[in-house]
Design brief:
The protein is built from 15 helices and no strands. By secondary structure, the protein is an all-alpha fold.
């Protein structure tokens, strides 16, 4: 029997979601190509400025920004480890960090895909000692809530570049604050797998530690932005670097692919020089990818090393 479509707006939303799930790859490819095309159009006639701005970034700045990306990934992975540990997971830190490195590969395409990749990797590698998937999904919420609260608190940095009304950051902060209070209320509930993922919010010590590691990750990203903007000749303030980070994280939720760094930088600082802003955005993506691949390479090498040690131990025991 054929299902009757839901009436009204709910039916439209359900149809759009189903279409998105079925054609996720195609949507990402099209979105990435469109974003790249728009950037190419914006940079038309500015090729020399763009290449010159890229050339101004020194090797030590690129190396430092890649290292800061690794610091951010490690800090966020430790925050994830704390939320999973509070939820009852007994996954070794080393194993969890290896699973967390898989976010790098998926995150290049889409932020949501990166989270899904590391959850799948953790369940595949340690199904006996890791929580169930609903709990692992919920364990992301405290980290996302902290990041969202920081973004709302600093969203005033977007008012000037985007021409937003001055009162919008106040509304955003109120909404995020209400949502965070709701998460805290849900964290006190017990009996469902989903709520276990919020268990870290029941403890002041646990919540404070998660906040501390998320702050390390966020400040590492802000410093990355500031260094690269100045490296290509953009006279950016710390607030500009924060605004670029907020734009980057927001756009990464859309199917824009690797062009997200350049798009975010141009959106915020394009009025100060499109070519230089785009160059900074490209370098953000490149150094971020390099740092992420270093993290993923460590995870692969560590897995091989552990596997060889186990094989050698079995042979010695035989």
């Amino acid at each position: 029997m054929q299902a009757i479509p839901e009436p009204g707006a709910r039916g439209v939303v359900a149809t759009v979601r189903a279409f998105g799930r079925r054609h996720r790859t195609a949507i990402t490819v099209v979105g990435s190509l469109l974003t790249a095309a728009v950037l190419a159009l914006v940079l038309a006639g500015r090729r020399h400025e763009f290449t010159q701005a890229l050339a101004e970034a020194t090797l030590w700045v690129l190396a430092l920004t890649a290292l800061l990306q690794i610091v951010a990934l490690l800090a966020r992975s430790e925050a994830w480890h704390l939320t999973i540990e509070a939820a009852g997971g007994t996954v070794a830190r080393r194993v969890l960090f290896r699973a967390s490195s898989m976010q790098v590969l998926g995150g290049v395409i889409n932020g949501h895909l990166g989270i899904a990749a590391r959850i799948a990797a953790l369940r595949r590698s340690s199904p006996e000692v890791s929580p169930q998937i609903p709990t692992l999904i919920a364990a992301e919420f405290p980290i996302i809530a902290i990041e969202a609260a920081l973004a709302a608190l600093t969203s005033f940095t977007l008012v000037g570049p985007l021409g937003l009304p001055w009162w919008l950051p106040l509304i955003l902060f109120a909404v995020i604050g209400t949502a965070s209070a709701g998460l805290r209320h849900l964290a006190l509930r017990k009996g469902r797998e989903l709520w276990k993922g919020l268990a870290v919010l029941r403890s002041l010590r646990g919540g404070t530690r998660v906040v501390a590691f998320v702050l390390v990750a966020v400040f590492a990203q802000i410093l990355r932005n500031w260094l690269l903007l100045h490296a290509v000749g953009v006279d950016a303030s710390l607030f500009d670097a924060i605004a670029v980070l907020i734009a980057l994280v927001t756009l990464s939720q859309l199917p824009v692919g690797p062009s997200v760094g350049a798009a975010a930088a141009v959106l915020i600082l394009g009025s100060d020089g499109v070519a230089a802003a785009a160059a900074a955005g490209v370098l953000l993506t490149v150094t971020g990818t390099v740092g992420g691949l270093c993290f993923a390479a460590w995870a692969g090498a560590d897995r091989l090393w552990i596997g060889r040690r186990r094989t050698a131990a079995r042979r010695a025991g035989a």
